[in-house]
């Protein structure tokens, strides 16, 4: 390494859900690392050794490496000129019309243009619209500074970052072999292997991964709704068809598919397609219909204007504290629109003053909806019926529909999916 760099790596957006676990992992591997972020409160927390969000296994690493001087956190962008490699990991959302919103990325690029120096390696980590790496190459090239630019997408699932960063192969999308090799050397410090693609292939690969995953969830949710409309329990059907039949192993359980990545990356791919791409928008439509579908079914059977509905779990997925784009809030909104009193609870989510303790919700509710299948809810015994699409409650088919229909239900909320054959079951886990 050239002696003039006092740091090995600096991460732009380094206090975020992608940036911070990556920075911690790089620092843990012995690299002198800095996180740069415009979120002063989050920087302050990291400086004080506190994770700004929940990520399994991250807090002990932060506590260990801070005293060793391997990690710095700052809101001063001049740190970017001190690192041999600069990683950009800012958010890349879509706007109201589902077009890529590049505001954060553009401002990150601007700050990099000011502070970059000859000889640096810039690694784009955010999930981006194909062609963005080429845009960065030009933006940095126009400054006259000799920097290498490469696209290395993040593929972890939130909550598993600290293990997956060390286990998943790293896709390296570089224009030339020396650039790819340079990035591969850096990621070789943490992960097992690298896969080399062009920048455009790597950008497309990341979007394709998330869109494909999101579309498989849409298939499950569509099948759930069709089955439910015809009095069939999708979870039981799924368990039955998967039993001893490996070709069906990839059929997911039904459940809310949402969060800050899968829907927006499917939307980005649709925007990129530049032609009709019916599967992507159809998946968005199906997955986003599920919460409204459940509320409609509840309204068919309960006088919602006089009911208290308890929502179990408000984050966008199991065992997470992340509420970004969580469909649980859509369920709440829809129920409230229909006049229901809605009580929400979540053992992981902090900072939402409307949330109540679980016991209070269980006590007051006339009917429950499991809106995030947290581990804490497994086997929970409830006094009232529950709409449990994922089948996380052990009783599974204690269907809200059955209860409302006096036991002769023609519709099912969900089931445990267990058949009598030993070992047959289904996992409610959603990881993306
Ligand atoms: N969250 C995931 O599980 C996940 C997984 C894979 C890929 N991704 C992708 O990674 C990217 C980041 O996602 P995230 O979930 O970490 O977002 P995030 O919002 O948690 O983190 C982004 C961070 O960037 C900071 N930031 C914004 N603009 C900045 C700027 N100009 N300069 C410095 N810091 C700035 C924010 O303050 C925030 O801390 C996105 O492109 C996302 O699609 C996310």
Could you characterize what this model shows?
The chain is α/β, with parallel strands linked by helices. The chain has 2 domains: 7-197, 3-Layer(aba) Sandwich (Rossmann fold), CATH 3.40.50; 206-404, Rossmann fold (3-Layer(aba) Sandwich), CATH 3.40.50. Helix content is 38%, strand content 12%. It has helices at residues 19-28, 40-47, 58-65, 103-115, 132-141, 161-167, 177-187, 199-229, 234-242, 262-273, 279-301, 328-337, 358-364, 400-404; strands at 7-12, 33-36, 71-74, 83-88, 121-124, 148-151, 170-174, 194-197, 308-312, 341-345, 367-370, 386-387. Strands 3-2-1-4-5-6-7-8 form an 8-stranded mixed β-sheet, with helices on both faces. It has a 4-stranded parallel β-sheet with strand order 10-9-11-12, sandwiched between helices. The longest helix is centred in the middle third of the chain and has 31 residues, at 199-229. The chain is globular and about 70 Å long. The two termini are 37 Å apart. Mean pLDDT is 91; it is low at 406-431. Bound molecules: nicotinamide-adenine-dinucleotide. Nicotinamide-adenine-dinucleotide is lined by residues 12-13, 15-19, 36-39, 42, 89-92, 104, 107-108, 111, 126-127, 154, 156, 158, 260-261.
Annotation keywords:
Rossmann fold; 2 domains; 12% strand; binds nicotinamide-adenine-dinucleotide; eight-stranded mixed beta sheet; alpha/beta; 432 residues
The major β-sheet equals: 8 strands, mixed
Which whole number gives the mean pLDDT? Answer: 91
Can you count the helices? 14
Q: What's the gyration radius in Å?
A: 23 Å
Structural class: alpha/beta
CATH topology category name of the largest domain: Rossmann fold
Distinct bound molecules: nicotinamide-adenine-dinucleotide
Quaternary structure classification: single chain
């Amino acid at each position: 390494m050239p002696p003039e760099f006092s740091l090995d790596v600096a991460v732009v957006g380094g206090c975020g859900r992608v940036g911070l676990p990556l920075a911690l992992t790089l620092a843990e591997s012995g690299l002198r690392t800095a996180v740069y972020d415009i979120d002063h409160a989050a920087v302050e927390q990291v400086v004080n050794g506190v994770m700004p969000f929940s990520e399994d296994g991250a807090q002990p690493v932060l506590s260990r490496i801070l005293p060793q001087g391997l990690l710095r956190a700052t809101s001063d962008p001049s740190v970017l000129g001190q690192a041999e490699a600069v990683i950009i990991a800012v958010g890349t959302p879509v706007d109201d019309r589902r077009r890529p919103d590049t505001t954060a990325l553009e401002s990150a690029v601007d700050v990099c243009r000011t502070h970059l120096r000859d000889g640096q390696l810039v690694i784009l980590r955010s999930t981006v619209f194909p062609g963005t790496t080429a845009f960065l190459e030009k933006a940095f090239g126009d400054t006259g500074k000799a920097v290498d630019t490469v696209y290395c997408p993040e593929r972890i699932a939130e909550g598993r970052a600290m293990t997956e960063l060390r286990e998943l192969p790293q896709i390296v999308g570089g224009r030339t072999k020396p650039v790819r090799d340079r990035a591969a050397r850096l990621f070789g410090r943490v992960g097992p292997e690298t896969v080399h693609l062009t920048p455009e292939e790597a950008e497309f690969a990341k979007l394709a991964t998330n869109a494909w995953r999101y579309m498989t969830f849409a298939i499950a949710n569509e099948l759930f709704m069709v089955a439910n409309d015809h009095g069939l329990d999708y979870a039981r059907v799924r368990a039955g068809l998967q039993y001893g039949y490996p070709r069906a192993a990839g059929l997911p359980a039904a459940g809310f598919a949402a969060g800050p990545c899968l829907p927006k990356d499917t939307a980005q791919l649709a925007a990129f397609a530049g032609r009709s791409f019916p599967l992507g928008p159809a998946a968005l439509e199906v997955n986003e219909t599920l919460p409204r579908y459940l509320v409609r079914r509840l309204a068919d059977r309960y006088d919602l204007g006089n009911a208290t509905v308890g929502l179990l779990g408000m984050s966008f997925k199991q065992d997470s504290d992340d509420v970004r784009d969580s469909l649980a809030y859509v369920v709440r909104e829809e129920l409230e629109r229909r006049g229901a009193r809605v009580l929400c609870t979540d053992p992981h989510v902090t900072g939402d003053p409307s949330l109540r303790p679980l016991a209070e919700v269980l006590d007051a509710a006339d009917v429950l909806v499991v809106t995030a299948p947290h581990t804490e809810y497994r086997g929970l015994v409830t006094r009232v019926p529950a709409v449990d699409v994922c089948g996380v409650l052990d009783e599974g088919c204690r269907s809200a529909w059955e209860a409302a229909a006096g036991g002769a239900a023609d519709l099912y909320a969900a089931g445990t999916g267990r058949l009598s054959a030993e070992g047959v079951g289904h996992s409610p886990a959603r990881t993306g």
